[in-house]
Amino acid sequence: MAKAQRHPTKPPVEEQRFTDTVSPAKGLRTMWRVLRIGMETPWQMAFALVATIVAAVLQLIIPQLLGRAVDQTQVAAAGGDDAATRALFLTALLVLAVSALRGLFATFQNYFSETVGHYTGLRLRLAYYDKIQHLSFGFHDRMHSGDLITLGLLDLEGARTFFATGVVRLLLLVVLIGFGGWWLISIDPVLGLLALSFVPYVGWRSSTSQLELRQTWLDLQERLSALTRVIEENLAGIRVVRAFSAQDHELAKFRVESIRALDLAHERVDLRVRSSSVMTLSFFAAMGLVLLVGGLKVQAGNMTVGTLTAFLTFMMILQMPVRQLGMLVNSVARTSTCGARIFALLDLEPTVSTDPHAPSFNLTEGTLRLDCVSFAYPSAPDHLVLRDISFTARRGETIGIVGEQGSGKTTIAQLIPRFYDVTGGAITLDGQNIRHVTLLSVRKAVAVVTQDVFMFTTTMENNIAYGDPWTHEEGIETSSSDAQLHDYIDTLPERYRTVVGERGASLSGGQRQRMSIARSLILDPAVLIFDDSTAAIDARTEERIFAAIRAKAASRVTILIAHRLNTLMHADRILVLEGGTIAEEGTHADLLALNGRYRALYDLQHHSFGDRP
Fold first, then answer.
1. In what order do the strands lie in the sheet with 386-393?
2. Is 463 exposed, middle or buried (0-12, 13-18, 19+ CB in 10 A)?
3. Which of 143, 199, 252, 298 has a 20 to 30 A CA-CA distance from 50?
4. Separation between Cα atoms, residue 125 and residue 421, nearest integer Å
5. Which long-range contacts (CB under 8 A, 24 or more apart) does 157-160 make?
6. Full DSSP string of 37-82
7. Under 8 Å between Cβ of 503 and 238
């Protein structure tokens, strides 16, 4: 198992959403940033640009050679000597040679421009994935994973192709239209202008249609994102769907989103076909005018047939690049939009971060303290979930926390490992504020076992050793034994090398929770938090797990959050939360004698589970 990379954190800046609104100045900055990434492959970029220029120049030579060949053919057909035939043969060889060279340099152009594009995509993809790994929990709370997947696929693809579809295409058009137009007009200004007459209209029509297509592409991207969300949620909850026989309902949802995407795709096809038709008509109209005027000039003896052939050939060559002018406009617009969305995410700074030069924890006594801690989630900053929570836990102590849903139990479990930053107060470990040390050392010192367990599609061994990939097999087996999972794994044919299904589908809920406990125990943290992490485990197995944990509890602070009071009875102290504050505090016996909220909860569970007199 590969060891996880470590990255320095950056000074915290408020996170913000990224939008589709792109100003011209921002669009230019975005395109420049994309090109700067491509410039990290300077030789490939230089080869692509040089090959584009050479290929375009060679392409401009071909019409002239064809025109010369036509004139030489007329001379030879009119009874010319062997010299005319040899000249025609030589021109034919030149056409073949120039065409072959143009094809070769066009291949170089495509190869190296795609190389630059793929390298740009690789750098953006790695930067995007790295940023996703480091953004705070608050960001992921409000962003749907389907939207992030769409952003990392479609938007990234739109940005990475800018060099090939934008820069290279622009250079090709400048050489062909600029030098080619100058050559035509220098031969015959009237005929040259007629030959180029379709260029402005086709360029305008292509550009406007591509801008319309870009807008429909953005709309289609939103619909595909919605479709991705439907698929993702369906696959994640496939057992719930089957259990409630809701396949028809899910299929109907999927069909609605698919039809919405299909309708927009049909609209895009219609727009593309109509634009292509009118552009083709304008091209052939211009060609007809050139043929008419040029034919009259040939008839009057003012122009040779070869020169007219060169004009017509150049128009045929110019047709496709001019149509690509719209694609160039689309590439610019797409890069400025998609790239802006990508860079908006890459520029986000986590709200939970520390100074890159912050020290690591220097743990001695292992004393955890919450001092007047208050907290409000970023999505609801005016609603305090916790208010002035204060308690101290020393090494070897077990603290139990109980309370109704919404009282703030899980919030405490998320604040101690600094998944979120406190709104007020401070959390310290051995007097060191967790905000003033590295996040890596905080996450190494504090381990949380949650009720919601995620398993990777890999072996049992790798799942257990995820937090410490270099641990020895003995350590993996010891933590599995403490989590009461070793005996089950020992019965499997591949034992610890058995591959669990996607999200641990091959394991029961209790087995997944025990594997999560083993995953945390293997870290040997200074603070170990159980956030209702044994809810799916039977009472007998739970007792054996906590017996093993209590046997090694002297080396750490243990915090138990649970709804079942039997789990907390052996805690050194129990905190009863209500409305985000500590309503009661004491041992199990003290709280029962108090006849308050804890006693009421105990009596309710005592009678509910059948221990009635």
1. 386-393, 368-375, 424-429, 432-433
2. buried
3. 199
4. 29
5. 157/121, 157/338, 158/334, 158/335, 158/337, 158/338, 158/339, 159/30, 159/34, 159/120, 159/124, 159/335, 159/338, 159/339, 159/342, 160/34, 160/117, 160/118, 160/120, 160/121, 160/124
6. HHTTSHHHHHHHHHHHHHHHHHHHHHHHHHHHHHHHHHHHHTT--H
7. no
Give the C-alpha separation, 18 to 15, whole Å.
10
* pLDDT, tens digit (0-9, with 9 covering 90-100), for 395-407: 888 888 888 877 8
- DSSP classification of residue 304: -
Integer Cα distance of 368 and 365 in angstroms: 9
Helix (H, G, I), strand (E, B) or coil at 341: helix
Rounded to whole angstroms, the Cα distance separating 68 from 73 reads 9
φ, ψ at 140 (rounded to 5°): -70, -25
Place of tokens 């719209």: 326
Q: pLDDT category, 534, cuts 50, 70, 90? A: low
The token pair that represents 231 in the structure block: 């698929």
What is the C-alpha to C-alpha distance for residues 195 and 185, in angstroms, rounded to an integer? 9
Distance CA 435, CA 427 (A): 8
Quote the distance between the C-alpha of residue 45 and its chain's center.
26
The DSSP string of 484-546 is: T-HHHHHTSTTGGGPBP-GGGTTS-HHHHHHHHHHHHHTT--SEEEEESTTTTS-HHHHHHHH
Q: How far is CA 376 from the centre of its chain?
A: 28
DSSP 459: B
Eight-class DSSP state of 350: -
Contacts of 341 (CB under 8 A, 6+ apart): 18, 19, 20, 151, 155
Q: Residue 50's pLDDT is what?
A: 93
Q: Is 396 helix (H, G, I), strand (E, B) or coil?
A: coil
- C-alpha torsion angle, residues 391, 395, 398, 402 (rounded to 10): 30
Residue 326 pLDDT grade (very low, low, confident, very high; cuts 50, 70, 90): low
The residue type of 536 is: A
The CB density around residue 267, as the number of other CB atoms within 10 Å, is 15
Residue 612 has pLDDT above 50, yes or no: no
Q: Where does residue 539 fall: left (phi above 0), alpha (psi -120 to 50 degrees), or beta otherwise?
A: alpha
pLDDT for the residue numbered 51: 92
Contact 381, 389 (CB under 8 A): no
Residue of 106, 111, 104 whose CA lies nearest to 56: 106
Sign of the Cα torsion 541, 545, 548, 553 reads negative
Q: Which helix (H) or strand (E) holds 198?
A: helix 198-236
Neighbours of 56 (CB within 10 A): 25
pLDDT-wise least confident of 92-106, 171-185, 246-260, 356-370: 246-260
Distance of CA 210 to the CA centre of its chain: 26
